[in-house]
Design a protein that fits this description.
Chain lengths: 169, 366
Amino acid sequence: MHKFLKTLIPFDIAKGMLITGKHFSKVFFSANRRKVPFHVVSEYPEVPAKMQPRFRGRLQLLRDEAGEIKCVCCMACEKICPTQVITIESDKKEVRKTKLPTRYDFEMERCIFCEFCVESCGFDSIILNHQFELAVYNREDMSIAMDGKFQNMFGISPVAKYSVADEKD
Amino acid sequence: MFKNEEMEINLGPQHPSTHGVLRVKLRLDGETIKHCRPMIGYLHRGVEKICENKTYFQGQIWTDRMDYCSAIANNLGWAEANEKLFGITVPRRAQYIRTMLNEFNRLASHLVWLATHALDIGAMTVFLYTFREREDILDINEAFCGSRLTTTALRIGGLREDLPPGFEKMVQKFLAKFPACLEEYENLLSENRIWKKRTVGVAKLNAEDAIALGVTGPMLRAAGVPYDIRKAFPYAAYAEMDFEIPTRTEADTYARYLVRLAEMRQSARIIQQCMDGMPEGPVMAKVPKILKAEVNEVYHATEAPKGEIGYYLVGEKGNPNPYRFHVRAPGFINLQSLPKMVEGSLLADIVAAIGTLDIVLGEIDR
Ligand code: SF4
Ligand code: SF4
């Protein structure tokens, strides 16, 4: 009898429906209220996305306080990069003791954002910034140089309107 | 060659239920499968060969991209194989953090499995709920290493960085809510008559066949063999953890579902123990800048979410790259049991069988 009732009335299905119903009503009755604890949808393009402090975005060259390029062309990053996307050429400049890069090319389309380059740099002259909007219309724009017209190695790209643009800690 | 009533069809490689690019060649008699051959290789990238042309350090990023659902488990096996080869001892704190991350990874992988497996069989809701929890795990990954899926979190000799501030709070928040979420999945599926009709007694693989085929992981444990490398050959900090190996004896799709759910409970337990007993200290051992092996070979196996993942490394004197790099991928070997499971059963069952194998084609084809 018990088994017959169980087959007749789908208790098991009802149990599942109860859960979905619970979640549905929870969202339904609080859809337009702000700051509900289970509000999982972020209003991304309007509100800039907040990345974790360690987020690995695009490679960026840093300058020191005086505005000088920090990189001293030790080639460590070029050597360690597993996909070989960094190309550095250097020139001995008279203005300072260490070498200065004349060319620092970064082919972003092949970068896998592994952070090996940042780790290998003993001079803290590169970081992976928080920029994650990396789509561009032309493939050439993916190859980033020090003096690129569209985007260069020093700043945030113009495409990254909604990434959080502050510095990494 | 063909009898009149037999028909040959291809399942995949673009079929959504084949989890990527698996192609299965089937010979059908009506709706009964007479003959089944999985065809692989559509995602072959030559990971092993590439790694032989890269230094020991650089090889890590390719291990990330083999089984992209469980990158940290792959990294862990790779890192430990290298540490074995070069005789590096990892600090205790790093071991604990690795263990914890590995278990988080196991959770994430099993959640993806549950989501896709249920979706294949027709339960859409579970997919939405499991991905909600997986999102939290990916956030934890992101907080730890800055990336969500292909993490590159570990290094030979330890970890790149210590835990970030606020990490413990994230973990505790996750652990507090996770058991209730697991219960939700169980309420949705465990007694559901549709789910049971599609899984109970489907795609059976008994212990004898499983061992003969080299099947490992939850597939083997659902057949009643309590073999888990975490217990059998403890690595990382698993020797100090208190956990059980869930097993079932039914050896069908439903049993594998129960085993994996029970495994998730144990993973949460291990994470809690790691957080409680986290020792202080450094997270990185002293590792030379360029690793060069004497002629030496190692095989190191770890328990990935899908089964035993083993790395075979041969070093060469004076060579900064490994001479040979071979991966024993669990999915590759588990997939060989597919004909055994489905031959003689109905066509609809093959979808359940592929789902229960928990395969990721990136790892099978490498
Ligand atoms: S993040 Fe990795 S792939 Fe990208 S430039 Fe740095 S080392 Fe190369
Ligand atoms: S490792 Fe740092 S200092 Fe050396 S070349 Fe690269 S960016 Fe410049």
